[in-house]
Amino acid sequence: DPDRLTAPPGWRIVLSDASPSTNADAARLAREGEEAGLVVVTEHQTAGRGRLDRVWETPARSSLTFSVLLRPDVPAEKWPWVPLLTGYAVHAALADRLPEVVLKWPNDVLVEERKVAGILAERIETPQGPMVVVGIGINVDQSLEELPVALATSVSLETGEPVDRTQLLGQVVGSLHGLQGLLDDTDSLRAAYADVCSTLGRTVDVHLPGAVVRRGEALDLDSSGALVVGADGGTFTVAAGDVVHVRP
Ligand code: BTN
């Protein structure tokens, strides 16, 4: 409901009925000169993109699909924290409704191992310099039949109540706006993130390029947010990859 949607101070929200991908929209607008703080929302995303070249499929009107254009005001070495910060902000916005919500490294939002939201952060070059598009997809109203069995869930399935999408969008955008400052202090961000990340301390299968899978113990996050995994008496780090929680 566009009439009830207000942007945080300095930010702007644009809505469309349909779009192939809001990440692509935000990147195009940025290359055309848009500034950070733009939020692009669509009612129906027809060619959504996920992490690791996957597709993100969402039935019209039963999800929230939007992207935020950011220019983090921190040194380049802190930019890898942006995808984790976004996951943390989405988690924070959902935690009141979904007490069981956790993050799977780097930024899958899960309830009892089922995905309720996904995030795709992409660094882009623009005439104004490098920026980041953070795309967020939240399963809001999907019924069981509309979701891959055992892999995904939706906010309303978990709460058993209808969800006001306008309110939820405002909460997530407000959360991201309000928490951006954590990038200045990545030690605090790391501690806050680790508190809500269910990957740490677990056995994981790390899917590496070339269909290689390494099993290990997720131990920690390094100073750039990469996952430190213990295996074979040593450790290795994963900067961007697919991690699967192994059930005990
Ligand atoms: C993932 O879990 O793999 C990430 C999914 C990200 C989906 C969102 S929906 C809005 C934005 N536009 C896209 O094309 N993708 C992201």
UniProtKB/TrEMBL annotation:
Q: Return the CDD domains for the record.
A: BPL
Residues forming the BPL/LPL catalytic domain are: 1-184
Q: Which GO terms describe its molecular function?
A: biotin--[biotin carboxyl-carrier protein] ligase activity
The answer to whether UniProt assigns keyword Calcium to this entry is no
Q: Which GO terms describe its cellular component?
A: cytoplasm
Give the source lineage, highest ranks first: Bacteria, Bacillati, Actinomycetota, Actinomycetes, Propionibacteriales
Question: What class does this enzyme belong to in the EC scheme?
Answer: ligase
Stored Gene3D superfamilies: 2.30.30.100, Bira Bifunctional Protein, Domain 2
Spell out the PROSITE patterns in the cross-references.
BPL_LPL_CATALYTIC
**Entry protein name:** biotin--[biotin carboxyl-carrier protein] ligase
The EC code for this enzyme is 6.3.4.15
The protein's matches in InterPro entries, at most eight in alphabetical order, are given as: aa-tRNA-synth_II/BPL/LPL (IPR045864), Biotin_CoA_COase_ligase (IPR004408), BPL_C (IPR003142), BPL_LPL_catalytic (IPR004143)
Q: Which UniProt keywords apply?
A: Biotin, Ligase
